[in-house]
Amino acid sequence: MCVQPHTEIYWLPPEIHKMRLPTSWRRLWLIVSSLPRLGAQILRFWRQQEDCLYLNVYTKRISGEGEGEPMARLGCDPETEDPGSAGCADKLSPVIVFIHGGAFYTGTANSHIYGPDYLLREDVVLVTVQYRLGAIGFLAPGSEEVPGNAGLKDQAAALRWVRDNIRVFGGDPGRVTLVGHSAGGASVHYHTLSAVSRGLFHRAVHLSGCALNAWAFATPAAARARARRLADLLGCGRRCAADPDELVAFLRTKTPREIIHASYSVFQHQETAAGYIAPFVPTVDAVYMPSRNSSALHEAPFLRASPEEAMRGADYHPVPTLAGLNSEEGMVVLLPDIITDEMTPSPRNLELLDKDFERVVPVELDLQRGSEKSRLVASMIRQHYFAGKQIGSETVLNYVQIYSDIMFSIGIGRYIRALQAHSSQPTFVYYFSFDGKLSVIKKLVRSELPGVSHGDELGYLFPVEMMPAEDVRPWDIDMLVRDRWTRILANFAKYGSPSGPAFKTDPVLNTTWSPSTATAPTYLNIGAELTQHDGYPKIDAYYFWESVYRIAGRTLG
User: Fold this and answer.
1) Which domain of life is it from (predicted)?
2) Integer Cα distance of 483 and 461 in angstroms
3) CA–CA distance from 229 to each of 239, 285, 321 (Å)?
């Protein structure tokens, strides 16, 4: 987690020293150090550092030592020629900027999780980005001083840096593909909705995440309520509830560690049972425009409307998009609890759910708990997923399937349909179903359940040091799936199409991939083979939840 320096200017943007972050790179040095590590395990996010706003740049263009030599290897003379000149432009590689996931409250861009080895084989430049997280990055108490979305603005600052400097690393600032996983995928969606990010990237990839996932957005009212709950947990009572500026002043007296640990208790069980992950997430920050006399030093508003409204608004700038999900995203709920290290779901939680199934009714349906409609919706969900079976250790897969849908597939399904309705750019849809030896999350939870968990596809995109060792041989199908997956993303970054121009002769892909449209929806199933299918992934689940929303008096899409 990124934690802003705790000083008298705690809530102001951090000072950027010229010695640490030059505004431009006229000459090139060989830099071999990576950004500070946040601990050896992805789940141990209490081991934090305040100095965290870094990015990594990985490129094959840097080779050899000494100032200027790498650009000379590109056919450019750094003494006489600007890296952005015509003589250098045709030597540049497409750029992939990757935004990590972690529910906007944990995660890192370190190479021990997101190593560059696989993607660099495809002749791209890879940039991985860190940003402020949790309450430090997404607190929005209703104050002009802290309007929210600081973490998204960190990402936008990284994109501006890439635009201004990536040529020196052999990257093409005119071919920047923004890729995000989970909350990172939601972040990518937000950047398409913000005027702040317009023109900074040219293609978008969403790996199991978008802003229409219920956990990825908080209304301004919800964001204020969560901020007040945080302050109350830390000991600030009525004065913080009444005045957001008092709340900010109070939080200034607390250490980052106190704020972070209090954040764990902001959500109540009803919210977590309904698929909400972290309390501090993106919100509409335009409602907190600073007044003429305000001394607030934050940037322009990042988001002017909810994601649904913003996709119909003037700030939306659609780009070619690749989006999809895994077969059993909800398996991620089996990860050990990040605080207690106990396995989840515990027998106790399963027993509670069996006795009180209203816990899984989505909060966004706004149904009064215990009401006839809430009980009806709970009964529908239980019958659909459990078909009369008792909830317990024998039906964990059914439990997983609920969270696959309410946390991921429904929101992503809504997003794909919204793209088809509001975007003039091509949309490519995938469904990752290959369950193999490089599946990251399944290895961590030691799950024997069938299916591909949320996060499993990352093992086929990045070498992950922390993953338990597995005997993967060069001729295993896993290696072919890895090569296909990286080729798909690299082709999309290079050409705007995952098939690429030579798909008929490409021994790795050897398939064409058509865009998905409202009149001809289609998706590519990435399994042991690549197969194209008509329709949408998880269509039966989508139809079921459409009926649930209809009964609740809401529309799903």
Assistant:
1) Eukaryota
2) 8
3) 13, 19, 37
State how far the Cα of 171 lies from the Cα of 124, in Å rounded to an integer.
8
Residue 513 located in a structural domain: yes
For every residue of 23-50, which 3-state class applies, written as one string?
CCCCCCCCCCCCCCCCCCCCCCCCCCEC
What lies within 8 Å, CB to CB, of 397 at 6+ separation is 449, 450
CA distance 89 to 335: 46
pLDDT tens string 288-338? 655 555 544 456 889 999 999 999 999 999 999 999 999 999 988 876 554
Q: Which domain range does residue 382 map to? A: 321-551
pTM for the full model? 0.87
Distance CA 244, CA 246 (A): 5
Residue partners of 532: CB distance under 8 A and separation at least 6: 511, 512, 513, 514, 522, 523, 524, 525
The reply to whether 368 falls in a domain is yes
CB burial of residue 473 (10 Å; 0-12, 13-18, 19+): exposed
Q: Is residue 89 part of a domain?
A: no
Asked if the structure places residue 150 within a domain, the reply is: no
Question: Domain count of the chain?
Answer: 1
Residue 332, classed as helix, strand or coil, is: helix
Supply the CATH number for residue 443's domain: 3.40.50.1820
Tabulate helix, strand, coil % of the chain (nearest 5).
40, 10, 50
- Structure confidence by residue, pLDDT tens digits, 51-72: 567 899 999 875 344 344 444 4
Enzyme catalytic residues: 182, 329, 454
Q: Is 107 exposed, middle or buried (CB count within 10 Å of its CB: 0-12, 13-18, 19+)?
A: buried
d(CA 386, CA 382): 5
- Distance of alpha carbon 113 from alpha carbon 465, whole angstroms: 6
Flag the least confident range among 82-86, 422-426, 457-461, 531-535. 82-86
